UniProtKB/TrEMBL annotation:
Residue span(s) of domain K+ potassium transporter integral membrane: 30-281
Protein name per UniProt: K+ potassium transporter integral membrane domain-containing protein
Source organism (scientific name): Oryza meridionalis
The keyword Isomerase is annotated on this UniProt entry: no
Domain of life: Eukaryota
Length: 281
């Protein structure tokens, strides 16, 4: 083996190691930033569930039932919906309602609005390979042949985006208002109008910062959410060990069933309150 070949191999190995280290550091930075965006709502939203579940004379089993509903809601939404379904709806790195609609338009003739398809090098490589066309399903043929169905599909995508925008506005408003309202506990002299005015000022400041991009805003809030995310489990573990170690039995879906059997119609009406535990997801 020549010396030049040996040097080339060595340089390739070194370059590969540098790219690997760079990839790991980028992943760590991205994980750090997501603390200020993704997990911010996830670790705060469950706090709103218990106050919204207005039960008359609640028993221990009622509280266990509510916790069981929260646990399985977060588990099913996080694992089944997001990991198994939503992460597969990937349109060139983009996700969400419009990305899913874009994927449907790419694989079926259902688009109404004119669009310009952007091909990547990977797609050009795939396009040179022979592809066996599969027989379109009945649902696809129905949507392609019906202008009403295609318009309803587009309307559903727009409605989903509007709901996301509404959640993005309401969730921080409720979170900030609840946090500032907590000042009235140690400081009873703080009036309700003062709480509302201070909350409005903070919200205006937050939305003004948003123009600098999600990356910068999340980087700024990540230390706060990291402190919250890591101290909350510590307090929770201590409280469970000190006051109620039996809370883990609520992980059984048995308590969810018992909750609805005991409260019946009232239980189904209160089920809307558990949606609050997933508003941040």
């Amino acid at each position: 083996m020549s010396s030049s070949h040996t040097v080339t191999v060595s340089m390739d190995v070194e370059a590969g190691q540098k790219n690997k280290d760079k990839g790991i550091s980028q992943d760590l930075i991205l994980a750090y930033k997501t603390l200020g965006v993704v997990f911010g709502g996830l670790v705060t939203s469950p706090l709103y569930v218990y106050p919204s579940m207005n039960l008359t004379n609640p028993t221990e089993e009622d509280y266990l039932g509510i916790y069981s509903i929260m646990f399985w809601t977060l588990t099913l939404i996080g694992v089944v919906k997001y990991i198994c379904i939503a992460l597969n709806a990937d349109d060139h790195g983009e996700g969400g309602t419009f990305a899913m609609y874009s994927l449907l338009c790419q694989h079926a003739n259902i688009g109404i609005l004119p669009s310009k398809k952007i091909y990547t090098e990977e797609e050009n490589l795939i396009s040179t390979q022979p592809v066996v066309a599969a027989r379109p399903g009945r649902l696809r043929r129905f949507i392609e042949s019906s202008i009403i169905a295609r318009r309803l599909l587009l309307l559903t995508a727009i409605l989903g985006m509007c709901m996301l925008i509404g959640d993005g506005i309401l969730t921080p408003a409720i979170s900030v208002l609840s946090a500032i309202d907590g000042l009235r506990g140690p400081f009873p002299s703080v009036s309700k109008p003062a709480v509302e005015g201070l909350s409005a000022a903070i919200l205006v400041g937050l939305f003004l910062l948003q123009k600098y991009g999600t990356s910068k805003v999340s980087f700024m809030f990540s230390p706060i959410m990291a402190a919250w995310t890591f101290t909350t489990p510590v307090i929770g573990v201590y409280s469970i060990w000190r006051y109620y170690p039996g809370i883990f039995k609520a992980m059984s879906p048995h308590y969810t069933v018992r909750f609805f059997m005991t409260n019946q119609t009232r239980g189904w009406q209160l089920l809307g309150g558990t949606v609050l535990c997933i508003t941040g997801t």
